[in-house]
Amino acid sequence: MNNSSNVFSDPSPNRFQVNVINESHDNTVPPLGDPDSQCYEETSFADEANNRRRVSYRHGNREVYDNCFQNGDAAKTDGSFHPYDTHSNTYYLKSFGHNTMDAIPKIDYYRNTGSVSGAKMNRPSLMDIHEQLAKNIAVTSVDKFTKADGTTRGDVESKNEEESKGGFVKFGWVKGVLVRCMLNIWGVMLFIRLSWIVGQAGIGLGVIIILLATTVTSITGLSTSAIATNGFVRGGGAYYLISRSLGPEFGGSIGLIFAFANAVAVAMYVVGFAETVVELLRSSNALMVDESNDIRIIGAITVVVLLSISVAGMEWEAKAQVILLIILLIAIVNFFIGTVIPSNHEKKTRGFFNYQASIFAENFGPDFRNGEGFFSVFAIFFPAATGILAGANISGDLEDPQDAIPKGTMLAILITTVAYIGVAICAAACVVRDATGNVNDTVVSGMNCNGSSACALGYDFSSCKTQTCGYGLMNNFQVMTMVSGFGPLITAGIFSATLSSALASLVSAPKVFQALCKDNVYQGLHFFAKGYGTNNEPIRGYVLTFFIAMAFILIAELNTIAPIISNFFLASYALINFSCFHASYAKSPGWRPAFRYYNMWVSLFGAMLCCGVMFVINWWAALITYAIELFLYIYVTYKKPEVNWGSSAQALYYVNAVDRALELTTVDDHVKNFRPQCIALTGGPMTRPALLDITHSFTKNNGLCICCEVYTGPRKLCVKEMNSGMATKQAWLTKNKRKAFYAAVAADSFRDGVKSLLQASGLGRMKPNTLVLGFKKDWRDATAVQVENYMGIIHDAFDYEFGVIIVRISQGFDISQVLQVQEELKKLEQERLALEATIRESEIEEGNHGVRGFFKRATKFNVTKRAPQKASSINTISSIHVGEFNQRLLEVSTQFKKKQGKGTIDVWWLFDDGGLILLIPYILTLRKKWKDCKLRIFTGGKVTRLEEEKIMMASLLNKFRIKFADVNIIGDINMKPNKESWKFFEEMIEPYRLHESCKDLTTAEKLKREAPWKITDAELEAFKEKSYRQVRLNELLQEHSRAANLVVLSLPVARKGMVSDLLYMAWLEILSKNLPPILLIRGNHKNVLTFYS
Questions:
Q1: In Å, how far are 176, 275, 337, 452 from 427, measured between CA atoms?
Q2: Nearest 10 degrees: CA dihedral of 838, 840, 843, 845?
Q3: What is the pLDDT of residues 1062-1085, one digit of tens each?
Q4: C-alpha to C-alpha distance for 414 and 179, rounded to whole angstroms
Q5: What residues contact 746, with CB distance under 8 A and at least 6 apart?
Q6: Average pLDDT, the chain
Q7: So where does this one cross the membrane (predicted)?
Q8: Paired sense of beta strands 17-18 and 43-44, if any
Q9: Of the candidates 76, 80, 68, which has an alpha carbon nearest to the alpha carbon of residue 25?
Q10: What pLDDT band is residue 695 in, cutting at 50, 70 and 90?
Q11: For the purposes of burial, counting CB atoms within 10 Å of the CB of 728, is it exposed (0-12), middle (13-18) or buried (19 or more)?
Q12: What are the pLDDT digits (tens) for 713-754?
């Protein structure tokens, strides 16, 4: 047996081939001209040329194919044995050599829409492999935007744009993260502030300050690593990590703060660089204006240069960073070498004595001056540790962010911490705190040193106690230059450290800001989302960052800027740690970080530590930071951006909901806690808005409301329509602020569907207890089966011990025809707008002169001439539709949305059903729309005891604490109705009567068999008194409640098998005829009211 030559051949081992196999007895491939040749061609599911995967039908002998597949499987015929199946002369789709459409596991099925690394593919749907095999089989790429996978339209557009440009730069973990983090951490503090910090705090507390800062950053680094390895990371750094973990509310609020903090950090690092340059100018007596203004001038020039490098592209910026790192490492090594080179007399006068145990001991303890303390010094130092996110901030430019961010970030923290501690200890062990720099300040013989290490080494710096000296750890910011082996290298290191940190921050701020703007969390900032060049560079963000940095450079005081940066970065770190804790605590199955070296409680401790340190550093700055964050959080929450990132907040909502639902099952029901939980048979909620509105009026913030729809008809079509509409209809409820759920079922009949809903809806204690449905206004025109189904639903509800509420309004509830007309008008309006746009474009394009311009004008003339015809046709169609438009129906459909004026809700409490008939109208009076309506209670009684029964009813209502305006006792309910009313009732039921009493017994039995649904004379006679009562009640309702805003009436109950469906519908018809909106209510005869506390 021989298969076609390319059955098992696949140029790529990762491609899923769908092959059409021809198996035959003669082991030959049929010639092309053979009429029985294969009529299906094979196509790969991974066709890389056009991303379309299909098995296409080729016209030929269809009989071959029709005989191949029966019920979705290949037909079995006698023939030769195949190693995978025993098929003969058949064609089938092949995976693993088996006849199946099932797709093998493949990464392309799990990609997000718009993925740069590969096209997203759709695996065959469950219907594709479950239903019979179709003639045309196609598996196509996703070509529409989706929100379920967390991809926004901005992501897709930018990614596709980058992909089309090609050539964008990607970095590995060393160049992209390690180098960048080390350079950003080794910033201005290393060379020009670390000596001052160790001078103030001493070696002991200085090391503690470094370790405390490292603790915060290390915990944050661990949390960052965990989040970064929990799925693919796009550009945006901290913003991306927080927003995808905690949601857009937290992400959007911290994203702005974090981007702003990075922009201000540019100013801080540039000011550090400018201070060093000004120091050199001062030592050479070459100041331009004065020190402060020189810092501003040099800082401004520096930022312009850095902006030019950044705008040139990431590749140039990365090359500059590598060069700066080399210079920085040489400078640090130069410092350590300088500490062991013997000091000369000049350096000794400036406080440098090489390693001395006495200096180490003297500098070990703190010596805080000028109002400084432990936390103020910590606040100055902490920004030196804030570079840990420099690599994560350019996550979109990394080859493998999941591998690079943890490895590069944690190693950078380790290396820089060791360097900081080493430099701090070495500087404090070699240099005294105060020195005069005067070569004549040597110790005179017989002088008492009083434990001074400098004095013991032969130098007298005692004058520094009474006046400020210019050298030493406390006074000279350029201590490392003095100590080093070659001073200019330290200056080069300072330049390198400050410029590299400034450059990294200048790149980070726009990248983070661009990611925030792409997500369109703040719609007004979408202008900054646009990128340029092969790397999608945020040029607009660079310009904005430039202006922010320039503003802070004008402050020119490093110690003023540093605490502000500390609070902004600490707020970001706190949320990153909280994100890691929250994601772990939510226990979502989607939280599966590849980085395992984290702990949720350590992350929580890190978040609390960050918050605490914020207040310790600067309490008012912390309050301002939190106030800004809270304002932005509330703003984003209010705007509700249309994004779905699968945040841990969503996971926690679910966990909490399940926990609360389970806890609720342990609590027994109590009458005081009864609330109406309704199944409303609205169909699509937008098609019967009035029924939804009245139900929502007494369930909003009070009970459960489920809008239910039953699909009947061919099962396959019903299920498909139902599944496609679920999300849309629930979204409609949310958009229209209806606190309700949508549920749908597919069933053989309407009654069967409702029966399923009555039995299975709800969860635990949150199960419906009341059925709300509209009155079947067309019952006289409906078929007997439809009426039977409607009545069967009411019987089923009573069987399952549900309360029943039947609502009737004058025009009915269904406005589906109105919606259809509106949809048609909308389409016509869109066509009109498109036509106008075409006309405008033709006018804009016109502009050339001469013959060409003449022809263009002629074209325009023709277009504009046709336009009025189209517009007039639209107006004609619109007028026709408006003429058919049932304006009254539309008005009635919105009547329960409007505020009800002063009026009454008339409650006809004729039969005790447990109190539901009283509770519903009482709840309505608590709503804003119904609060001006007063309750009037009507009930039956004996004519001889009207006053007594009125007092008893008023007493009962008072015990129930239900406010009422009036109580009316009706004594003549059981009187016969007037002749006109009874005649109307008889005429109404006449078409449905059997009139068997006028026929002989045989004929009567035959009529009963042929029309069992009709009303028999015996039935009518048996329930004549009850029929009288319904007709009489309508007369009383017309008399007393014709002007009420709403009528609430006890629903009569029809005994199963005793009262026919048509007679019962006639009762409901006559009861509710020509009245205001009416609720026919019957509880399940269990108490829903109590007067006990």
A1: 31, 21, 12, 17
A2: -70
A3: 999 999 999 999 999 999 999 999
A4: 13
A5: 710, 711, 712, 715, 718, 719, 722, 753
A6: 78
A7: 250-274, 295-314, 320-341, 374-396, 408-432, 597-621
A8: antiparallel
A9: 80
A10: very high
A11: exposed
A12: 888 888 888 988 898 899 899 888 889 999 999 999 999 999
Amino acid type, 12: S
Backbone φ and ψ for 235, nearest 5 degrees, come out as: -65, 155
Report the b/e string of 144-160 with b at 16+ CB within 10 A. Answer: eebeebbbbbbbbebbe
Nearest to 751 by CA among 681, 678, 827: 681
For the record, the structure tokens of 582 come out as 């929250």
Q: How far is CA 125 from CA 59, 138, 465, 550, in A?
A: 26, 11, 84, 56
Picking from 705, 807, 823, the residue whose alpha carbon sits closest to that of residue 766 is 705
What are the counts of helices (DSSP H) followed by strands (DSSP E) for the chain? Answer: 37, 18
Cα→Cα distances 622→492, 568, 619, 929, Å: 36, 8, 5, 44
* 746-751 contacts at long range (C-beta below 8 A, 24 or more positions apart): 746/710, 746/711, 746/712, 746/715, 746/718, 746/719, 746/722, 747/710, 747/711, 747/712, 748/712, 749/712, 749/789, 750/710, 750/712, 750/786, 750/789, 750/790, 750/793, 751/788, 751/789, 751/792, 751/793, 751/796
What is the percent of the chain with per-residue pLDDT over 90, rounded to a whole number? 23
CB 613 within 8 A of CB 216: yes
Residue with structure tokens 């009109």? 832
As a whole number of Å, the CA-based R_g of the chain is 42
**How far apart (Å, rounded) are the C-alpha atoms in residues 816 and 1024?**
39
**Quick check: 380 and 562 in contact, CB under 8 A?**
yes
- Range with top average pLDDT, 12-21, 154-163, 210-219, 529-538: 210-219
Which token pair is 258?
A: 């974090």
Tell which residue, 704, 625, 754, has the closest CA to residue 257.
625
pLDDT 10s digits, 413-469: 999 999 999 999 999 999 988 888 887 777 776 666 666 777 878 887 788 888 888
Give 803's strand partners: 770
- Unique residue bearing structure tokens 């310009």: 543
Tell me the pTM: 0.69
The DSSP output letter for 388 is: G
The 3-state DSSP class for residue 705 equals strand
Instruction: Taking the CA atoms of 788, 789, 791 and 792 in sequence, report the sign of the dihedral they define.
Output: positive
Distances (CA, A) of 202 to 363, 374, 452, 456, 616: 5, 10, 15, 20, 20
Residues 6+ apart with CB under 8 A from 394: 171, 176, 180, 235, 237, 314, 507, 508, 511
HEC assignment per residue over 62-84? HHHHHHHEECCEECCCCCCCCCC
The pair of structure tokens assigned to 1043 is 């002007």
